[in-house]
Amino acid sequence: MPNADHRLAEAIIDPIRQGLSAEDFDFDDASQCFAKRSGDFVQQFQMAFADVRGRLVCVPEVGVRSELVEEIFHRTSEYSGRNAASTATLGVSVKLLTGSEDFDLVLVDTDDVDPAIDRAKSAFRDVAVPYFAQYCSLKQIDAALNDNPEEPCIHMLNERARCSRGLIVAKLLNRRNYSELVQIYDRKVARAGAMTYKKYFRPLVAELEQVRALHESTESQMD
After folding, report:
1. How many domains does the chain have?
2. Which residues span the domain enclosing 122?
3. Average pLDDT by consecutive 10-residue portion of the chain (223 residues)?
4. Which residues, other chains included, contact 57 with Cβ-Cβ below 8 Å and sequence gap of 6+?
């Protein structure tokens, strides 16, 4: 990224960092992500900038990470170390979530900085905060991933990642149709790629046989 672009990015990030630090969000320079831990969950607001044809562009993203889900996921995933520590259980761009480009940041020169800061603050206040409130439990994450298993999920566009995390949450919650989900997701991931299927997905399914539900009962109340 050219030096000028870097300075424009810093001009956006610095005031956002100051505001969110008061709400206990820490900023990671490598991922350009603000994160706040709340029990097992981590709220994530990412502002990753990229140079696109001479313009500095950022499409903010929101995410929620369950440490329990991610710990199980990474037992058989391709991620390790720092990369594994920052993955999201649910994650989506603000543009896709809202169906609007109103929160996109595009900067060419310093005149664009103040409007971009306002849009970033609005993206956090109007989109990220409600998202964090909506997906603050495994039951809510389960609904997002598993209520419509045959359909794509905007909260996790990568099919293998969605299917893997969906099964983990379903297993932890003792979801009634877990076996059906295994069959559906097995077919979907197998179609997505043989290497991914054999190297990461099937080992996870086997791993989940050893995972106990959080609240085991004679009959699950999960749909």
Report:
1. 2
2. 3-134
3. 66 93 92 93 94 89 98 93 90 97 93 95 97 97 98 96 98 96 96 89 95 63 45
4. 49, 50, 51, 104, 105, 106, 107
Crossing angle (nearest 10°) for helices 159-172 and 138-146:
130
Segment 127-136 long-range contacts (CB within 8 Å, at least 24 positions apart): 127/60, 127/62, 127/94, 127/97, 127/98, 127/103, 128/43, 128/45, 128/60, 128/62, 128/94, 131/62, 131/64, 131/97, 132/43, 132/62, 132/64, 135/64, 135/90, 136/38, 136/41, 136/64
Residue 214: inside a domain: no
pTM of the model: 0.91
